[in-house]
Amino acid sequence: MAGSEETERRVRVELRWFVPGEVPVEVDAWLDTLGRDRIDLRVDHYAVAPEEGHSLKFRGGRRPRFEVKVWHADPVEVDLGAGVVGRAEWWGKDRRSVPPGRLMDHDGEGLWAPVAKVRRRVPGAEVVALRLGAPVAVLPGTPASVAGPDAAPWWSVAIELPGASSPLAVHRRAADLLAGFPVTGVLHAGASHSYASWLVERFVSGTGPEGPAGSEAAAGIEPAYAALQAAT
C-alpha cells in the first residue's frame, strides 16, 4: 500500500508527544507565537492492536470515515538537545469505508478506544487537548463508545512535515518550531508516540504512567461528543 500513487500523495512525517493532564497555558501561548491557528473538535476511535507500523481509526466529525495508516519508511530518532527527543515517523494514509477485519482482539471483537480532541493547528505544528476513554467493543460513533468512568485528560504536541522531508530537514524544522517551547522535561523519548503506539502502551503493555481519571475527567468527553453530534 505504501507504494501506491494514491498513498504517496498522503505521506506525512510526524513527531508527536503525549503528556498526562490538561494543556498548560504556557503551551497555548507558545502556539500563538507560531501563526494563526485553526481549531477543530471531534471524537476519533482507534483500533487497539499491538501491530507496530499500522494505525486504524474511525474518524468522527462532519465526514466520518475509516483511515488506515502504515509506515512509509523506518522511524528515525530526532535529538534536538536539552532533553527534547522524538521519533519521526513517515506515514502513508489510505481511506476506507469499512475497516480491515484482522485488527481484532483475542475474542474476535474489534476494540476501539475513543479519543475526544480539541485540536489547535498552525503550519507545521499542533497542540491537542485530549479526553481518553477505555476501549469498547461497539460500533465507533455511538454514545456508549464515548462515555465512561475511565476517560482521562491528556495533551499532545506534534510537528508535521511533508513526506518528502529528509531526516536532516525534519531535524532542522523541528528544532526551529520547538525553539521557544516553554515546558521542559515533557518532550522526551518515552513520551514520543503515534496515537497507535500510545494506546498500546496505555491499554496493552501497561508500561506507561496513566493520566488522571475519575468522574471529573470523564465528564469532559461527553460534551465534546454532544457538540459533534449537533454539528453532523
Roughly what percent helix? 10-25%
Please compute the radius of gyration using only Cα atoms.
Answer: 17 Å
Strand content: 35-45%
Number of strands: 8
The structure class reads alpha+beta
Order of helices and strands: HEHEEEEEEEHHHH
Oligomer class:
single chain
* First-to-last CA distance: 31 Å
Task: List low-pLDDT spans.
Answer: 1-9, 97-108, 207-232
Cross-sheet strand order for the largest sheet: 1-5-4-3-2-6-7-8
Q: What is the averaged pLDDT score?
A: 78
Q: What can you see in these coordinates?
A:
The chain has 232 residues and is α+β, with helices and mostly antiparallel strands. 21% of the residues lie in helices and 37% in strands. It contains six helices and eight strands, in the order αβαβββββββαααα. It has helices spanning 5-8, 25-32, 167-177, 195-205, 215-218, 221-231; strands spanning 12-20, 38-47, 54-59, 65-81, 84-96, 112-122, 125-132, 152-162. Strands 1-5-4-3-2-6-7-8 form an eight-stranded antiparallel β-barrel, surrounded by four helices. It is globular, with a radius of gyration of 17 Å. The protein starts with a helix and ends with a helix. Mean pLDDT is 78; it is low at 1-9, 97-108 and 207-232.
Helices, strands, pairings?
Blueprint (H helix, E strand, L loop, with lengths): L4 H4 L3 E9 L4 H8 L5 E10 L6 E6 L5 E17 L2 E13 L15 E11 L2 E8 L19 E11 L4 H11 L17 H11 L9 H4 L2 H11 L1
Antiparallel strand pairs: 1-5, 1-8, 2-3, 2-6, 3-4, 4-5, 6-7, 7-8
